[in-house]
Amino acid sequence: MKQRVTRMVAAALLALIAVPTVAGCSQEKRGTADAPVSGHRGDDSPANVTNFPDHYANIATKCVAGAPGFRAFVTTRDAAPIIMADASCKG
User: Fold this and answer.
1) Neighbouring residues of 79: CB distance < 8 A, sequence distance ≥ 6
2) What Cα–Cα distance (Å) separates residue 3 from each residue in 7, 11, 12, 16, 49?
3) DSSP 2-43
4) Contact present, 48 and 60 (Cβ < 8 Å)
C-alpha cells in the first residue's frame, strides 16, 4: 500500500514538472504568435501605452495601418481589440 502511494506521489510530481515544460515549448520565438502579414511588411511603429497600477489592465493604442481615420485599442487582459473612429489618424 505504501509503495502505491509513493508511486502516485511520484507520478503527480512528474506531471507538475512535465506539463509546464511541454507547454513552454509550443510558444513562438518572439512569444507573440502574431498572424502573418501580407508581403511580410507591416506597421512596426511603436504603440502609445498607458500603464495603470497593478491589478488594472494597461492600454495600448495605435492608428490602424491601411484604414485612415481609425484607431485600435488593446489591453494586457484577454479581451478583443476595439477599433474606433479617430479623425487624428491620417492615412
Assistant:
1) 57
2) 6, 12, 14, 20, 56
3) HHHHHHHHHHHHHHHHHHHHHHHHTS-TTSS-PPP-GGG---
4) yes
Global pTM reads: 0.53
Is the CB of residue 70 less than 8 Å from the CB of residue 90? no
pLDDT digits (tens, 9 = 90+) for 25-55: 555 555 565 666 667 666 778 899 999 998 8
For the stretch 12-21, pLDDT in tens is 656 666 555 5
In the block, cell 489591453 appears at 75
Rounded CA separation 18/69 (Å):
48
